[in-house]
From TrEMBL:
It holds the Pfam family Band_7. This is SPFH/Band 7/PHB domain protein. One of its GO terms (cellular component) is plasma membrane. It comes from the Bacteria. Gene3D superfamilies: Band 7 domain (3.30.479.30). Belongs to the band 7/mec-2 family. Residues 17-175 form the Band domain.
Amino acid sequence: MIGLIIVAVVILILIFSSVKIVTTGNVLVVERLGQFHKVFEPGWHFMIPFIDFVRKRVSTKQQIIDIPPQNVITKDNVNISIDNVIFYKVVNARDAVYNIENYMEGIRYATITNMRNIVGEMTLDEVLSGRDRINSKLLSIVDEITDAYGIKLLSVEIKNILPPKEIQEAMEKQMKAERNKRATILEAEGAKQSEIAKAEGIKQSKILQAEAEKEANIRKAEGAREAQLLEAQGKAAAIEEVAKAQAEAINKVNKAIIESGTNETVIALKQIEALQEMAKNPANKLILPNETLSSLGSISAIAETLKGNK
């Protein structure tokens, strides 16, 4: 009875030990009789006791390798210090286990070696201004190397580039001088813009003043012209009224003479006298019909005769 219990317990232990649960983000590399057998993905799996063994648990999550500062010599023989951060993930657990002893060390050494080669082909100025170029080139080269390890490089980032102390001091002085230069330029530009704005304001003020004076002169001239026109119209109207009054007076005299039967010679003389009176006033304008002008000669002769008779 005790033997059966022992056998049952052993069987249960073997059953439970043969069950493997793989969590998300991990895989198991399993060997059977010392040779690669299978990669267990996340989930439940069964193994044959004493025949199947887990060689290694491998994480398939994104991982980080922080590479400490490395001394690198540039093309122009400047010794600088560079440190990197590498982001990667395992995409083939079998290759990561069987193709290299330690894939993390393989990534680290491949990155350091190729970074020195890349920086050695660049001057200090090119290195300082070419971080993206270095990152891109380094990622391409190292990713190709680690592909055989079942590793996929996601990103390579340079954290710091530190030149020698004396170069850093010179760079700081140059940056300070550049900042002062920019500040001076900005100050001068501000003063320039202020003067331009001030001059523009004065210009606009003068333009507005000139336009106002021009408008005033135009209105003044128009007022004077209107006044002269009204004055001339008034004078013309006055002359016209005087002429009408004188014409009416002559007509009345003529009518009275005709009605009284006075001699035509006397009438002619009266007309001449009336014309003489009208001509004395320089403001009067005489308008005579052609018949009157043609008869002036005969009237003058008659007048002389009458004066002689007197």
